[in-house]
Amino acid sequence: MSDELHAEAGSSLGEKPYVWHGSDRLRTWTAQDRLGIYTHVRLRKKTASRPHGNDVYGNNTTKRADEYTSTGQHQQPKHYAKQYDPSEGTGFRLGAAGAWTWTNGAALSHAGCLAALCPPLTTASLAEAHSHRFLGLKVPCLWTDCRHSRLVWSLGPRRRLKRRSVDEQSPAMADEAWVAAWVSGDVPGRCRITKLPLEVLIRITKWLATTDLCALRLTCRAIEDLLYVTFTDEFFTKKQFMITYDSLQALIDISKSRLGAHLRFLHIGLDRFPEGFEGLYRPLPDDEKERKFKQRYSNCIALWNMGYHHEMLTDAFRNLRGLEDVVLRDSNSSKRSRDGPNTEWTSYGSTTIFKETGVRLSQSMDGSCSQVFALVLRALGVARANPKGIEVMVRNGNHLRDFCFDIPCFAEPSVLPVLQKLEKLHLSIDLSWRTSPRGRSADAGPTSQSAPDARLRKFLASIPNLKNLRINEHHDDNSALTDFFVWLAAAPPSGDAPPEANGHGEASMAPVAMPRLEELSLGIMNLDCATLLGAIRKFAPSLRGLELWKVTLQRNLPTGSDPNEPPRNIFWTDFLNQLRQIPDLNLRHFKAGMLSQEYTRLSRVYHVSFKGRGATVDYTGAHWRDFVEEVIPKLEIKWPRTVTPEHGDSDDQVESDDNA
């Protein structure tokens, strides 16, 4: 025998429903699934039976109320269900032809059952049964405020109703307005937690795990309404998906719901099934996991091969009218503090795949970032979406290569309008693809069509309203990066003739103006001081923010210098002094961190820090020049220790080493 009453959702309302109230104390808990929430009610076992003899039906009341057995989807009572009158302390039993079922308030209202919602409660109304006296004065009644499901008792044959005569023991019908409010979950003054100040309730829920928070939200409509704003801000303002069928279908479903209006930052993870050296050459030991792995893998391959991922992304973008940024990333954020330290925000569906197959999806370098970037651009164009920014965040080497910036003629009508409205562009690029490690090709000048970054230059020329530009490379010594910044720093051509609108031809290789650029961020690259200052000087009139992160300044080794003991000069001192001298540069924000320097063609890299400030300095305000002047004397490098000369070395050599 079981003392639990389980129920199924979506039961039929072909017979009149009757609300059940038990004589024993009820305890409720919740379990979330994809469609909603089920409420499980546990009926505490009775230690003694009520000595009432026979009830009005002639049934023996000595049977215990917890004697139930499960028969499939419905819970059939082995003997009788018990109904309690809280006002008189007496009870009676219904016949065994009923079944415990679930239904919801909307279905009850639609079926016109509100008037018949209250069963015979002798002299007590449903409102009295709902009172705290029913469940105990010290226990707030959360179950009776639940709007997502109602436990009802459906009588079997209608002849059982005829067996009962309408006499003085028949109940008084509960107030119809109160019943309607009870069904909708809007009964005032019953759920004490809703009377807490909102800031207190938010503070309490801050420490709940995600599953517990979702369960609390679904207990009643009042709590859901109170927590709706904070819940959507945390979980649906920014959401991460991946290019799989289940993940993209979830994105489409969200975009069509009321949550779609809150999704402003869409992150697309580069999760994929491991292949090559990362792949699984042998079947999984568990047959069920192997079957699910093959099914998931084949679905993913078919999605890419048939191009259906483009249609799904287009459908989602078409519905996300509040979309601001689209972010491509090959790593998960570890800022999910609600579920414990080091918990990550993963792509939707990746955790499910791991639980089903035991295989964790990979985000390592495979070149897929360039494909997904082109896919997203095309889907945005077809959907006529107008995001303000596109970002590429790379930590595992999935840098964009030049070919992904190519916009074919058949895609220009849809993609170019998207680029013309972009205001933010964050790129992680790899300009070393199909180029020599050192030296410049004879035909690949700064404005040559054969330059390894020719398509990137055309791409930037198609974004006239750019305000925020971030470019990250990967500390490559290839001269293509220097050529790109020389092109970027060059002045645009004068005259009234603009470049060709379609981005083709030599005119499109002319330097771009970017007159609205306000924020410039450069990172993970090797450049010389003059080239870097030239790019900053060009955009100085409009520039308001400058960030330099993991930038390595390069300088040629002076003639006659010893490669083993190069001059101990700090290159960043000269750079910051020249930066302060740029006349039109009126920054409001300046940040520099993890800086370094090196002599070209020498393998040694020297890391720069700031005394008393660590490796990073950050300033926001109008007096950035004073701040830079203050931190220049604090620049320091931990130079390698000077080798102690052996016996017989000249004193002049020792003195020159000390004064170096």
Automatic annotation (TrEMBL):
Residues 190-239 form the F-box domain. InterPro entries: F-box-like_dom_sf, F-box_dom. Residues 48-84 are annotated as: Disordered. It comes from Tolypocladium capitatum. Residues 57-75 have a biased composition (Polar residues). This is F-box domain-containing protein.
